[in-house]
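Per reviewer request, we include the raw input and output of the structure prediction for the construct analysed in the revised manuscript.
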Amino acid sequence: MTEKTKSNAKGKAGKILLRILLCFIAVIAVIAIATAIANTASVKSSRDFIQTLSPVETAGLEPKIDEVDGYYTFTTDRELKILRLTDVHLGAGFLSKENDIKAINAVAGMITEEKPDLVIVTGDISFPVPYIAGTLNNKNGAVLMAELMEQLGVYWCLAYGNHDTEAYSYFSRESISELYSNKEKYPHCLFQTGDEAVDGYGNYIVKVKKPTGEITQALIMLDSHSYVDGDIFGIEWKYDCVHENQVEWYENQIKSLTEQNYGIMPSSLVFFHIPPREMQEAYYDYRDNGFSDTENTKYLYGEAGEKDIVVYPSNYNYGLFDKALELGSTKGMFFGHDHLNNIALEYKGITLSYGFTIDYLAYSDLDKYGAQRGCQVITVSPDGSFTSRQENYYQDKYQPVLEKEQVTMQPYYAE
């Protein structure tokens, strides 16, 4: 073969490789464009459905910013009704389209029936897991939730979960916080980004006062973060928790509220996403005693439906629960994260409570199971006490706009 022939052969091979590469790029581009179009259509379907919902007839309490500390404050001499949701898991992608509408339908149906003064979501509003949702865009799930609450006309706030801003999702906690903080667009969202000197986003308080000025309850939101020790995608379940400087912030806030409250420490409830290690301690204490109460642990209600270690907290503990015991203000801690757990235990005098989830996405065929889906109703009284109860979504009293899906009520891991 002559040098000229060799050169021509190399040229032809190069052209073939270039054509293959261009075809590959073209295929990827077509898939990306098609996916983007499908995701846009999916979000539009959810938004169109939201627009069909009717505003909720609540009691009309309107929180105002307290100039003393900048926190939203409800002023009332009656009970305040809170609806607690967790793990809504809006994928906001073409793969999750049907289940997103089911989740929105469920949330709207329960809020419409319960007519709360305030809704608190303890994390994982968004679920931008690409092979389940079909998208990496976590902002769309946040937008859907914010638009839903505006359409219903109900005040609400949230604490972040690990899925709200995954390492691979498009938008950071800072960016999503800017969205939730847009009071012109979302006036019913009471989220506040919090002190920049404290770890996390969304460490803030919503207060309840009597008309006389006495603080009857402080509702404290904390960011329990996402993952630690290099497990940036959460594959090894190495979860984070409330950090040390957040515990310091919590203590300082309780002391500040006490000063505002004429030297009397007000009651408080704390809301975050990832369960504290003390929940695992309490559950094991109760389980190892034959699922009977012990000196430290009292069963309140609910079920523990997760497998293996059942309660999945962080391996770290920076003392939030111990500080709560020391101060004596906080009577209850509320969290989510473990989707099949809705059990509540009283541990050393403090209520530790999972909640029913909304989640239709995280586990295979979870949309076909209903025992774990619902909400929690928390009622705080003017004397600082509170009550809470769990409500399953599939009760007859909840009548959403769309007919409820058919589900089995057996536990997800039933043999």
